[in-house]
Amino acid sequence: MPVNNSIEDLRVIARSRIPRALFDYIDRGSYDELTWTRNRDDLRAIELRQRVMVDVSRLTTGTTVLGEHWKMPVALAPTGLTGFFHRDGEIEAARAAQAAGVPYTLSTMSICSIEDVRAAVEGTFWFQLYLMRDRGFNAALISRAREARCSALMLTLDLPLQALRRRDPKNGLSVPPRITAANAWEILLRPRWLTGVLLGRRRTLGNLAAFFPKRGIGELSEWVGGQFDPSITWKDVAWVRERWPGKLILKGILDAGDARLAADARSYANTDLAWGGAGCAACRWAGVGDGSKRIDRRQALLRDGGSGLATYDDGLFARGSEYGCCCSRVSGRGLHRSGHRS
Ligand SMILES: Cc1cc2nc3c(=O)[nH]c(=O)nc-3n(C[C@H](O)[C@H](O)[C@H](O)COP(=O)(O)O)c2cc1C
């Protein structure tokens, strides 16, 4: 029986269980994968300062973040299409998060809907929202999240335009996944994925299907493609604020000026670095390429961002020691794929 005791071990298992198009979608980055590579290198360069003869017999990872008690200061970040990685992926992830005592964030672009996840778990979860051109759709999603008793709304700010992820078209990534001459053999070698996902009952974007019950998946994908709104500004954050009085997390804040505006919007900030390199082009906290490390920039962001803003750091971490390296002044971490970081 093989022993699996690292995220890299889990990554290897995932590679053997799901087709390449989906694996690369989860595992790799956008454009030339510069942010993706630099994130890892910056994190690896940070070292822990060792002190000895300190009583460590009563350690705890428990903490309070955003007014919620967590057993660890990490949360599951939102990932679109999780239900295509594994049957009922979002439900399983939400259950796992609940068992571990940490929050789960459901993506707008999930396969299981808000209601599916609500019905499957007892505790609360967070909901991630994209602002689309169709504000009726956004308003409906916000009320569905409220109805499902989501304890926080996470508004993604850093995807006004879709990034080019070079591997996806080359791999023939499609929604829903399809058997083609190029991938048939690979899929047949993954019977669990074939029966659980490809022939499973959830084959569409669950949150959108309820909005467009009569549309086919092709029309739905077309609608989604045309819906990302490149004109969004802080006035749209205010629009969401009016409709969501609860905890609002703004995802993608990397600049101290933006952090101040986030504080003005009575929100928390999530510092996802270009989706860990899976989203927009190469970028860094508060500026480009001046040689300082990601964590130094983040500290600067916290320092200059003004008081009153709780910052929630997103991405990268694959092991506790990396987390420890970045812990100073940090409230929590978003944990997503991270396997490739090993
Ligand atoms: C495959 C994939 C799908 C994602 N889907 C979403 C999404 O639907 N909404 C969102 O706000 N962020 C999304 N993200 C970004 C993650 O929430 C998170 O910010 C990022 O993955 C953190 O970097 P890491 O994966 O290196 O840890 C996605 C990231 C990946 C890799």
Short description:
The chain has 342 residues and is α/β, with parallel strands linked by helices.
Task: Describe the SSE topology.
Layout: H1 7-17, H2 20-27, H3 34-45, E1 63-65, E2 68-70, E3 74-76, H4 82-85, H5 89-100, E4 105-106, H6 114-120, E5 126-129, H7 135-147, E6 152-156, H8 167-171, H9 184-188, H10 191-198, H11 206-209, H12 217-227, H13 234-243, E7 247-251, H14 256-264, E8 268-270, H15 274-277, H16 294-304, E9 311-314, H17 320-325, E10 332-335
Parallel strand pairs: 3-10, 4-5, 5-6, 6-7, 7-8, 8-9, 9-10
Antiparallel strand pairs: 1-2
Helix pairs in contact: 14-16
Any descriptors?
single chain; 342 residues; alpha/beta; TIM Barrel; 10 strands; 41% helix; binds flavin mononucleotide
